Amino acid sequence: MSKNLTIKDIAVLAGVSITTVSRVLNKHAWVSEKTRTRVEQVIAEHQFSPNLMARGMISRQSYTLAVIVSDITNPYFVTLVAQIQQACLAIGYKITLYDTQSANRSPQHDDDESAIFQSIIDSQIDGVIVLGGHSDYAPIPAGYLTLLESLMDKMAVVVVGQPHPAGRWPCVMRDQQHCVGLAVNHLLARGLRDIAFIGGSRKVWVTRERVSHFHATLQQAGITPRDSWICLNNFYPEHGYQAIDTLWQQAEQPQALVAINDRVAMGAIRALHDRGIDVPEQVAVISCERFPGSEYFIPRLTSVDHQNPQLGQNIITMMMAQLDGSLSPHARCSAPLKPVLIPGESA
Taking the mean position of all CA atoms in its chain, how far away is CA 310? Predict the structure, then answer.
């Protein structure tokens, strides 16, 4: 009777997924000791030995993950992808990178995403990690949501950022509130109360979350935020520069700026320098999101570190839990890591 058992039967008897049995048979590292022991006991009890054809079917698992980003030139994505790759290499996986270049494109134009998703489906890919792009829009475009849900029906998917509206996809959360609180409270502690927010986009969930908490933090300090000092124009250095042009056309200017990220902060500091305004003596600048290399900028940026190395590990942990069937329905969204303020010279 044991000779007729299949890998699927072993999975059922052990109470695990077929993928987990595959990993145990192939002596893969990403299986807990408790689970490995249980599977090995079932295999031993039933004297199970997969035939060559079954082993060939097992080996069809590619140990490859697709990583989809919306703009690989963005330092945030560059560093996070590097951390994801390191975490993958440690467990015998590799990644394939797909860059949709959707960061500066209307969400209505989802042809590129559709082609990429189809390419992934046609490839031998075990799972997909989605970083930013249209999954971070508020609301998520209906067409893109349909594409992503279709992909989820065919393979494991982990989204980094915004949770699914109905809680369907596994999500690794990033802190979008505490980072702003750290930045604003740092400025308030210096006695600065006239504070503007620059960078980001109204259509992006990350920006909405950060601006909302920017308002809340100022109000808690007894300060009424000025709508004219909220300049949401995008995420790149030129937008930081343009934000200064916009703010300095007004009758009154802020004492300090909270930038959506380091690149926007750098553009703003350059614009202030071109106007003969000293940072931080005349205007303080602080960033909600630290990028590598900011410590070499003049002045050295004061910014908030989101702990990308640990974030990358958390992403892979959730993906592996999905692949081996151990992801709890109650753990489909991970708690965000707490960001840390990195003191610099700009604020």
Answer: 11
DSSP string for residues in 302-338: EEEE--HHHHHHHHHHHHHHHHTT---GGGSEEPPPP
Tokens of 119: 């390419």
Q: Which helix (H) or strand (E) holds 68?
A: strand 64-69
Q: What pairing do the DSSP bridges indicate for beta strands 171-172 and 156-160?
A: parallel
- At 309, the pLDDT band (50, 70, 90 cuts) reads confident
**Domain ranges in the chain?**
2-59, 64-175+308-339, 178-305
Question: In the CATH scheme, what is the code of domain 64-175+308-339?
Answer: 3.40.50.2300
Fold of the CATH domain 2-59: 434 Repressor (Amino-terminal Domain) (1.10.260)
Among residues 141, 130, 72, 78, the alpha carbon closest in space to that of 103 is found at 72
C-alpha to C-alpha distance for 224 and 209, rounded to whole angstroms: 18
| Fold topology of 178-305 | Rossmann fold (3.40.50)
DSSP at 18 = H
- What is the structure's pLDDT at 158? 94
Q: Is residue 163 very low, low, confident or very high in pLDDT (cuts 50, 70, 90)?
A: confident
Q: Which residue has the tokens 């209505």?
A: 108
**Cα–Cα distance measured from residue 311 to residue 332, given in angstroms and rounded to the nearest whole number:** 15
d(CA 56, CA 143): 38
